[in-house]
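Is this the right way to post structure tokens for a design question? Let me know if I should format differently. Anyway, here goes:
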């Protein structure tokens, strides 16, 4: 198979990729460290809040960016 690139295609959403990576990373750290740091500790609550904000920003970018990091139709397939 040969790769076909459309010359008028939009550039990838690099900002969305960074936000998604940071949001999921913060969530993973909170889940992994929750037991040892204490689920109600300031660090865990801050990580969960940061994760929610970043993943919310990803959702907004997915809805508005011409070439989003995640296809907006993906949740409709399940």
């Amino acid at each position: 198979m040969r790769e076909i690139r459309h010359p008028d295609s939009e550039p990838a959403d690099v900002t969305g990729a960074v936000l998604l990576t940071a949001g999921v990373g913060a969530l993973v750290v909170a889940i992994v460290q929750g037991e040892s740091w204490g689920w109600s500790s300031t660090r865990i609550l801050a990580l969960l809040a940061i994760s929610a904000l970043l993943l919310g920003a990803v959702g907004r970018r997915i809805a508005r960016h011409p070439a989003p990091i995640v296809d907006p139709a993906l949740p409709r397939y399940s």
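Format looks fine. Someone answered above. Worth noting: Helices lie at 14-37, 42-64. The radius of gyration is 17 Å.
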